[in-house]
Amino acid sequence: MYRLSRLLWALLLALSIAWIGLGSFLTSDQFDSGNLGSELSSEIQSLGGDIQVDALGNLPLPALFLATGLPFALISLFFLWRARKRGTASAGVDPDSVIRRQALLVSILALVFALFLWNIREVPGQDIPQPNTDIVTATLAPLLWPVRLFVTFVHEAGHSLAALITGGEVIEFEVSPNGSGRAITAGGDPALILPAGYLGAALFGAALFFLTSRYPKWTRGLSVFLGLSIIILTVLYAGQDDFGNLTANVIGIGFGVALVALGWLAPRIINVFILNTLALLTGLNAVMDVSYLVRRPDAGFGEIMNDAAAFASAYTPLLPASVIAFIWSVVAVFMLGAAVYFGLLKPVGGEISDAVKGNN
After folding, report:
1. CA-based radius of gyration for the chain
2. Are the CB atoms for 297 and 166 separated by under 8 Å?
3. What is the DSSP string of 119-157?
4. Separation between Cα atoms, residue 318 and residue 143, nearest integer Å
5. pTM of model > 0.85
C-alpha cells in the first residue's frame, strides 16, 4: 500500500514539475521553437492563454504555469515525504485510513487532469440547427464531446426526474449531436422542473465528486449503481430528436454500461479517478452552461424560451431572465466549490494538520 502511495505521489510530483518547467520554458522568450517545435510552442501558448482567461487573470504566461503547478508540487512533496516516513512502520496501519489517503491523492490527480482537459483549446465545429433547444453549440473540443453530450443527458434527466418527483410524468427526453437537448414532460411543478436541468447537472457533478472523495470504500458500488440507474432511465424515457438522432440512447447506454463495467472490473483507485474526473467535467460544463444564459438571456429557438427565461416569465416577472440565470449560476458554483472543499481540500488540510501534530 505504501509503495503504491509513494509511486502515485511521486508521479504527481513529476507531473507538477514537468508542468512548471516545460510550461514556463516554452512560453518564455528564451525558447526558440524552430521548425520542429513551432506547433508545440503554439499549443502551449494557447493553453496558457486559456488558463489566463479562465482562472488567473493577467499574469505572465510563465508565471501562470508556476502558480498552477507549484501548489500540487508542494502537496505531493509533503505526502511523498510522509509516505516514505510511515512506510517503515506500516504494520498495524488502519486499512480505511490508507484507502482514504489514496483516494485523496487520486482526487488531486483527477482535479489536475480535469482542469487540463477543460483548458484544451476547442476546435471549430459545425453549427447544427436544432429546434426547441436552449443553446446551439458552435464549437466542441473533440476529447470533451462525449462529456458534453453526457452533461446534456444529465440536464434533461434532471428535468425528467423533477417532473416525476412533483407528481408529473415524462413523455421522453432527447439529446442532439450538437450538445443541445429537450425534455417533454406533463404535469408536475414547473417551478421545480425548470431549474432542475442546469442545477441538476451541477448537483450531480458536485455530489458525485463529494461521495467519491469522502467515501472511496464504496466507489465501485457507486459506479455500478450509477451505471444501472442511467441505463434504466435511458430505456424508460430516452427518445430520438426531431432529426431522428438516437443520441440520448447511445449516450445513456454507453455511459451506463461503461460505469457498470468500471465498478465491476476496475480497481477502486481507477474508479475514484474516473468518477471524479467525470464529476468535475460535468460540474464545470453545468456552471458554464448556466453562465452562458447570464450573457445570453434570450437564447432559445424561435418562440421556445430557455429555462431561465421561462422561469422568469412564469414566476418572477419583475426579475429578468439574466438575473434568474445569474442566481442559478451562483448556486451551481457554490455546489461545485463546496464539493471540492469538503471532498478534497478540507480532508487534505486535516491530513496535514494531523501530520504536524504527530511530529510535535
Report:
1. 22
2. no
3. TSPPEE------TT-S----EE-GGGHHHHHHHHHHHHH
4. 41
5. no
